[in-house]
């Protein structure tokens, strides 16, 4: 049974990841898009809004002459439309360790397949970053192809150190690049980690990177706490979530359904 973030946390996510630009059309979250239902007239809207144009002409003092209204260029109004936006979902998964890392990757792989299996309707794009060894790896560049995802995520290595700051930095670079290419697509960064940074740059660098991502404001974020509950809890995942301005979510069982359930709360 998936565990979802509480409603107040969901609202926080939507505020932190909101773009001021018009959103890319999709089917996940309500937003202003190029297609959808017309909600009002605007000089910067799309197409031709007849009622809004008539009202603008009337306000200017235009009259009906011989059954016609003579419009001026400044009278013309387009439609502001409200539809559904699509998203860029970037997974940052701690692949250090052995068995636990494989469980995390299995959950992410299943979630990616579920998300892209519905991509025809939602038009989402998904990326996966593995955090292990000396440097993170972009296992799956942003794509909406389930075939590409299957090939790229079929055999993934685990083990080694945890260069978590570098993993977050790589995710941020991917998000910035995609934002320049398609500014209307909302980004969601999903971090699966216990918050430990055992790479050479350390915890302080992790805090700096997380703070930079939060201040830049290009993405919403959620941290899925993967700390082993059999040990004394250090709360590092919660600290990371706090630095990102994101909620920290714990699940009873980490699997694909749990991950997709959390994302569906956005």
TrEMBL record:
Domain of life: Bacteria
SUPFAM superfamilies named among the record's database cross-references: vWA-like (SSF53300)
CDD domains: vWA_Magnesium_chelatase
Region described as Disordered: 12-31
Pfam families assigned: VWA_2
InterPro entries noted in UniProt: BchD/ChlD_VWA, Mg-chelatase_DI-like, VWF_A, vWFA_dom_sf
Sequence ranges assigned to domain VWFA in this UniProt record: 88-223
Family listed: Belongs to the Mg-chelatase subunits D/I family.
Protein name: Mg-chelatase subunit ChlD
């Amino acid at each position: 049974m998936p565990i979802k973030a509480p409603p107040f946390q969901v609202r926080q996510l939507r505020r932190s990841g909101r773009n001021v630009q018009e959103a890319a059309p999709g089917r996940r979250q309500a937003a202003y898009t190029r297609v959808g239902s017309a909600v009002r007239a605007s000089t910067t809207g799309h197409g031709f809004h007849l009622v809004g144009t008539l009202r603008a002409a009337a306000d200017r003092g235009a009259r009906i002459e011989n059954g016609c209204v003579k419009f001026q260029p400044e009278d013309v109004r387009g439609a502001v439309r409200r539809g559904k936006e699509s998203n860029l979902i970037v997974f940052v998964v701690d692949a250090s360790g052995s068995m636990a890392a494989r469980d995390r990757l299995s959950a992410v792989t299943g979630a990616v397949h579920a998300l892209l299996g519905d991509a025809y309707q939602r038009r989402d794009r998904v990326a996966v970053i593995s955090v292990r060894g000396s440097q993170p790896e972009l296992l799956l560049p942003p794509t909406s192809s389930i075939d590409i995802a299957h090939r790229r995520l079929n055999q993934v290595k685990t083990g080694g150190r945890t260069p978590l700051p570098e993993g977050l930095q790589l995710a941020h670079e991917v998000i910035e690049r995609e934002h320049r290419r398609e500014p209307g697509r909302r980004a969601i960064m999903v971090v699966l980690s216990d918050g430990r940074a055992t790479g050479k740059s350390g915890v302080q660098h992790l805090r700096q990177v997380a703070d930079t991502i939060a201040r830049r404001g290009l993405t919403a974020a959620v941290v899925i706490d993967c700390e082993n509950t059999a040990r004394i809890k250090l709360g590092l995942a919660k600290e990371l979530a706090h630095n990102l301005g994101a909620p920290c979510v714990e699940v009873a069982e980490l699997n694909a359904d749990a991950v997709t359930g959390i994302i569906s709360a956005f």
